[in-house]
Amino acid sequence: MNVFFKFAFLVPLLPLIAFLLIVGITRHVKGSRVSAGVSVGFNAISFFIASGILLRLIALLHAGGAWHPIELTTTWMDFQNVANFPPLHLEAGVLIDPLSSIMAFMVTLVSTLIMIYSIGYMADDPGFSLFFSYLSLFVSAMLLLILSNSFLLTFIGWELVGVCSYLLIGFWYKKPSAARAAIKAFVVTRTGDVGFLIGIVTLYWVAGTLNFKELASLDLHSLLIGWMSWGVPLLIFCGAVGKSAQFPLHIWLPDAMEGPTPVSALIHAATMVAAGVYLVARSYFLFVQSPTALLVVAWIGCFTAFMAATMAIVQWDSKRSLAYSTVSQLGYMMLALGAGPIGFVAGIFHLLTHAFFKALLFLGAGSVSHPFHEKENPFDMHHYGGLAKSMPLTHITFLVATLAITGCPLLAGFFSKDEILGAAFHSPLPTHLTLWGVAVFTALLTSIYMFRMYFLIFHGGKKSDSHAHESPMVMVAPLLVLAVFAAFGGWFGFPGHSWIAHFFEPYRMAYHVAEPAGADWFGMSVGTAVFLGGLGIAWVLYGQGMPYAKLADHPVIQPFRIFFLRKWFMDDFWNGLLQVFAYRLAAAASWIDTNLIDGSVRTVGVVTGWVGERIRVVQTGQVQQYAIVIFSAVLLLLIYFQYGGTRAWMP
Amino acid sequence: MITVWHYAILSALLFVIGLYGALTRRNAISVLMSVELMFNAANINFVAFSYYFKNENVAFLAGQVFPLFVIAIAASEVTVGLALALALYRNRSVVNLDSADILRG
């Protein structure tokens, strides 16, 4: 076996070691940058191994012949002869296949770059070391989630990234809004995780294993009978809905922007939120056997994409706008996966390209906000305008990312989004043309809101009080690297010569998908037209100042604007639901707790005290009185044994 | 003829005198002495019963040896008791038992 495969387990382990090192040792080194070095160093080694695995896998696939996923396992728990329990054999291991290897490559690469960026961004923060320890722990958990070979380990990684997300959103916990956002994110994603856990348990109950490889080789049609055929995949999809911020659990992601910007870029744009998409792809064998489940996934993805795009258009906070954009793009990925096996590669491809250009957008937004850090909200786009000259490198990289996400021909998003639209168009689902229509319209919205943001930040009049400057090199360098990927990453999926489609051939064969056809000229023209249309609209509205700003108060437009600004009233919906059910339940529980449970405990205490108060007079402290009592008692006992009771015990 | 009853009555009298003293005297030294009386009442019983029931095949010498132990242990107990009385005197300037009542409830 290849040496890289043999050491695959080190990929998630090294960041964990970095985490322990920072927490245990380097955190206590005052005022130094050692922690950052430890984090970046171990992450870079992980990246090196992950790249080795990816390259080796590519070579294997090119060699042709029969190919099987590579699995390295070790026994984790083994209970064979425990009374009253069925035998339980759990394995921990890594699964190396195209999906996990390319995800591991992406995660290690993006996280290394973002860690380097953080050295500059977090330079003056008192929690510098702690921040890097959390980042390392997160990367470790994320890689565990990706490389694990069973639902169980994936679930563990899944929960760990949730905890890290919580810790990092609330990193500036002294800010009440950040603390609230952290709790919201954790609770909302946990809501989805409940479904995920029930799904896993049901699956184990039915199939008797949680190993991906074993599950995929089972005859699921005969195992998952009745409601379970669509119920199990949809329960697992619940977890993905929470983690990937899909409707109706998308509400936590925009608030999660309270965290530091590198966190938003790494966790809430590139990696963790994509874990939901990854989960669906990883358990795709469950989804393909149920058209109902696929339809639900496609529609939730499609609707989320549309809804989030409308909300992104009206935001004035650059990071929040990007967050809605992330939700929208994740919806695209779900749509692709839900469209059926023909969309599988498209969804993963978009996940990868999106990771690069969205991380780049977030880091760019952070770099833009850097000179404004003493403002109340450094990300408020009202402060910006005409920054193109003062921060040229940030400007160029941001422009590249904007072009990539909006689908400018030949940049990354163009190819991946085209694939998704094509998948929706050719999907066997009953409503595929409606899905396609909504997706195309959403692409138009994407183009509008992204160029709106770009124009608002970098063009228009320069604000008088701005003293903007370019960020330090340690922050700009990762932007440049990411820009290269955002620009050319899409070429790996060049229509007709798609490397990525070839790379995922094992999946295509497993799910019986035909070889992708050549270039889809119709789809490409639609994509380009939508891109240009959005660019044109954004240019007219925001390109040179805002000539039509009054239009926002137009009686036809204003209701929509308010509707979108209030996030489709989704927050209010959930709050109302909590008001009605959760808060009343909590109030009842609280009453029972204070009155029944605490009350009974207090009663015991009060009664004991009362009795003690009454009988304390017996204890006089006079030792001779005690002696009298003792002798009287002995006397009474003697009388009792002599004249009363049974004497059977006596010899 | 002196029977075991005579010894038993002597022992009972001795015990009751000791008990009376232990329960009524205020002076700690007197109480200690009364306790000694009760010990010796028990000792008399031991020896007397041991002697009169020697033919009933119970452990004959056990009743003779036991008082020796009691005497030895009573001696050490008195040592401790007198030390306590001394300590009491140092703290309270009297050796009255009713003055040592700080553990009252």
Structural features, described:
The complex is a heterodimer of chains A (651) and B (105). The model of chain A has no long low-confidence stretch (mean pLDDT 85). Chain A is mainly alpha-helical and 651 residues long. Helices cover 69% and strands 3% of the residues of chain A. The radius of gyration of chain A is 31 Å and the shape is globular. Chain A has a two-stranded antiparallel sheet with strand order 1-2. Chain B has 105 residues and is an all-alpha fold. Chain B has 3 helices and no strands. The longest helix of chain B is centred in the C-terminal third of the chain and has 31 residues, at 62-92. Chain B is elongated. The termini of chain B are far apart. In chain B, 14% of the residues are buried. The model of chain B has no long low-confidence stretch (mean pLDDT 88). Chain A binds chain B through residues 616-624, 627-628, 631, and chain B through 19, 22-24, 31, 97-98, 100-105.
Low-pLDDT regions of chain A? none
Helix content of chain A: 55-70%
For the record, the count of structural domains of chain B works out to 1
Our estimate of the beta-strand percent of chain B is: under 5%
Number of helices of chain A: 27
Strand order of the largest sheet of chain A: 1-2
- What does the overall shape of chain B look like? elongated
Number of contiguous helices of chain B: 3
Percent helix of chain B, as a range, is over 70%
- The Rg value of chain A, from CA coordinates, equals 31 Å
Q: What's the SSE pattern of chain B?
A: HHH
Main β-sheet description of chain A: 2 strands, antiparallel
CATH top-level class of chain B: Mainly Alpha
Strand content of chain A: under 5%
What is the distance, rounded to the nearest whole angstrom, between the alpha carbons of the first and last residues of chain A? 83 Å
Largest interface (C-beta under 8 Å): A-B, 12 and 13 residues
> How do the SSEs of chain A run, as a string of H and E?
HHHEEHHHHHHHHHHHHHHHHHHHHHHHH
> End-to-end span of chain B in angstroms?
54 Å
User: For this entry, what is the oligomeric state of its chains?
Assistant: heterodimer
Supply the helix-strand structural class of chain A: mainly alpha
What value does the Rg of chain B take, in angstroms?
17 Å
